[in-house]
Amino acid sequence: MTTARLTIDPAFRVGPVRRRTFGSFVEHLGRSVYSGIHDPEHPTADADGFRKDVVEMVKELGVSTVRYPGGNFVSGYRWEDGVGPVEQRPRRLDLAWHSTEPNLVGTDEFMRWCAQAGVEPMMAVNLGTRGVQEALDLLEYCNVPGGTYWSDLRRANGAPEPYRVKMWCLGNEMDGPWQTGHKTPEEYGRLAAETARAMRQIQPDLELVACGSSQSSMPTFGEWERIVLTEAYEQVDYVSAHAYYWEEDGDLGSFLASAVDMDHFVASVAATADAVRARLKTDKRIHISFDEWNVWYQKRAESRPPSGDDWPVAPVLLEDRYNVADAVVVGNLLISLLRNSDRVHAASLAQLVNVIAPMMTEPGGRLWKQTTFHPFALTSNHAAGEVLQVALETPTYETARFGDAPLVDAAATWDEQTGELVAFVVNRSVTEEVRLEADLRSVPGLRVVEAVTLSNPDVYWSATADDDDSVAPRANDTAAIADGHLTATLPAVSWSMIRLAR
Ligand code: AHR
């Protein structure tokens, strides 16, 4: 059997496990909001129409932040449409998804939903069709305690306390020609800088995210970040990164190595930001908000927005059904985010419910988990303390997309408080089991607390509302530790979590 060797030592650290790594995203898109988190007809609906069973599952998923209200949607959004008496709110065309936006859910409802779900809101402002003033108005509405037009309107709308939103995205994917109000990097960089400067006049300690590239394959990748950051470096804290992966033409081997691209993406953006830092002769470091990432089969019919005269409310859009291989890739992308947590300080799985999501709802009916739910929930719930630098000796395999890729990938976290060490490991081989040997002599006395593996002979198995459990992470009884050496068998196309403690 092929062997991969891992050495883990708490002396070698990347940085703290950041809770914001486990963020997600709710956009006004398809059934993400309407008949997703919001379904007034559902038996569990609260006074706002939010499904309580969804809220409970969001907690189980371990989501920290939720980005809102888009996405492409935000670039045409008038946030004022979504506040005040619901029956007086206008219906608008949503150009991004060729839909009708009924504005039944807006800022106040979303903030109440966040409070219930125990998540931190991460708001995006519209820098597509709008600009500095509307961003300031929304900030005033959300964060100023009272005594001004917008803050008093919030109070009148039932929220006496400010929402104190800390993290704000300055627009969305402004590098993409599909974006309403798409801009050149010079235009966007100036607008982002001016918006940030003005927002900080209201609240200096905001955490602001400038748009980076919407894929590493964008023709402007690298140059976009360089120009935007040259304009906005001192005004922002983060540059965003977005990446979606899918299996193309049956090339499972390349797909399983998608995290190679994510690592490259982070390294390239960090290097570009540091080059701007050197040129500007500043001490400040820009971090990355990887605020859209996932598997997304963009070419499938369900990702095609309506057209012509058809402008439906909450159509079925981007409702990808994920299989086991997709979940292994999601688990591997989380390994990459953890490994890069010195530079990636926030991330959002795009998205949360129904739309390329780990959770699915039936209107008025059942709620169920996709395969991708499991690696996210387990990583979020068990990665704690410090991310460790692991030394990995692994065979490689040839891929059409990424050249030679490591066959096994891994990350580890170490929680000094609880004495728990957790390894997250992926076997990318399409055909072969791999034996994992991990040298853990630096932490004497460890025993295996839990070892679980997600795999299946049919890697294309997908969950449904009728069966979302027959393939899920199961105990991996091969995991054993002796004389400070952990061994485990990793099935082909698998994701595993191994928890160890004294
Ligand atoms: O998450 C779906 C879409 O993907 C978002 O609206 C957009 O930002 C990205 O292109």
Please summarize what this structure is.
With 502 residues, the protein is α/β, with parallel strands linked by helices.
* Shape designation: globular
Q: Which CATH-level-2 architecture of the largest domain?
A: Alpha-Beta Barrel
* Integer tally of domains: 2
Q: What helical percentage do the residues reach?
A: 10-25%
Largest sheet: 8 strands, parallel, barrel
Q: Enter the CATH topology name of the largest domain.
A: TIM Barrel
User: Which distinct ligands sit in these coordinates?
Assistant: alpha-L-arabinofuranose
Instruction: Look at the structure and give the mean pLDDT.
Output: 97
The span between the termini is: 29 Å
Number of helices: 10
Query: In what order do the strands lie side by side in the largest sheet?
Result: 3-4-7-8-9-10-11-12
Strand content: 25-35%
According to CATH, the homologous superfamily of the largest domain is Glycosidases
Q: How many β-strands, per DSSP? A: 26
Poorly predicted runs: none
Q: What is the CATH C level class of the largest domain, in words? A: Alpha Beta
Structural class: alpha/beta
